[in-house]
Amino acid sequence: MKTEDVRTYLLSLQDRIIDTMQSEDGSPFVRDAWTRPSGGRLEGDGVSRLVEDGPLLERGGCNFSHVKGPQLPPSATQHRPELAGAPFEALGVSLVFHPRNPYVPTVHMNVRMLAAHPPGRESVTWFGGGMDLTPYYGFEEDAGHFHTTCRDALAPFGDDKYPRFKQWCDDYFYLKHRQEARGIGGIFYDDFAEGGFDTGFGMMRSVGDAFLAAYLPIVQRRRALPYGERERDFQAYRRGRYVEFNLVWDRGTLFGLQSGGRTESILMSMPPVVKWRYDWQPEPDSPEARLYTDFLPPRAWV
């Protein structure tokens, strides 16, 4: 019954987020329900919701999945080697929204539960998730709002959670090969089992429920700001960093691909228009340079 409670919550969360973003965008999200029959590497079901070429979202996706497999992939056991090879069950909601206007930041959110069922031993359940913001043009007001909402979502679970999970986010969403942050962070946690199932599930709900409050006011403040080819060009360049992180470092992407997940759903996080340049640097003292000097280096936002 505990897994069913998590499933019911996650499907409700997906519906609430999609209903709100459809209203903001004015374009319907495609609904793609899928199933994986038993007998393969994975069995289970899910619902992918996607919009492309909307007035607000150039590309946006919000996935629900609930799968079971005979063996945990390496990406899920790197911190729990004693569970290597155990059958598993995983369910979660994951989203990435890539807005059209470069002044509206890209956002990612994920909440998930994973359970391992080692033969002859008690099952082990843990939770993970978080949300992070990737602006192209930074605004102090937006960064402060996003982090304040994240802090408040974690406050009922202990004063240590926000600083701990903010640091985890700063460390995780970092392109080591570039020595550069992906964005301004937020909160991130994984392999969380402190306080048992009820605490983990409660924190997962609090983080999921905080997403719209964290992101929507930023969207509404920035979506009508005028922009030109310069801003779109820089947005496409910075989106390249997003692609690099997701394909090289992201554990969720690796988990999905290693476990035989649905490739279209896993890679729906990719932005639609991306550019790379050789050894490019922004003009000194430009708005683009300010992203690197004032926003990407980790700092206290609240």
TrEMBL record:
Write out the entry's keywords from A to Z. Cytoplasm, Heme biosynthesis, Metal-binding, Oxidoreductase, Porphyrin biosynthesis
What this protein needs as a cofactor is: a divalent metal cation
Keyword Coiled coil present in the record's keywords: the answer is: no
Subcellular location field: Cytoplasm
Task: State any GO CC term.
Answer: cytoplasm
Its domain of life?
Bacteria
Region listing for Important for dimerization, in residue ranges: 242-277
What are the catalytic residues? H108 (proton donor)
Biological process (GO) annotations?
protoporphyrinogen IX biosynthetic process
Site annotation (Important for dimerization) points to H177
Give me the residues that bind substrate, please. Answer: S94, N110, V111, R112, G260, G261, R262
One Pfam family per UniProt: Coprogen_oxidas
Q: Where does a divalent metal cation bind?
A: H98, H108, H147, H177
**What Enzyme Commission number(s) apply to this enzyme?**
1.3.3.3
Catalytic activity entry: coproporphyrinogen III + O2 + 2 H(+) = protoporphyrinogen IX + 2 CO2 + 2 H2O
Provide the assembly information. Homodimer.
Q: What is this protein called?
A: Oxygen-dependent coproporphyrinogen-III oxidase
- Phylogenetic lineage: Bacteria, Pseudomonadati, Pseudomonadota, Betaproteobacteria, Burkholderiales
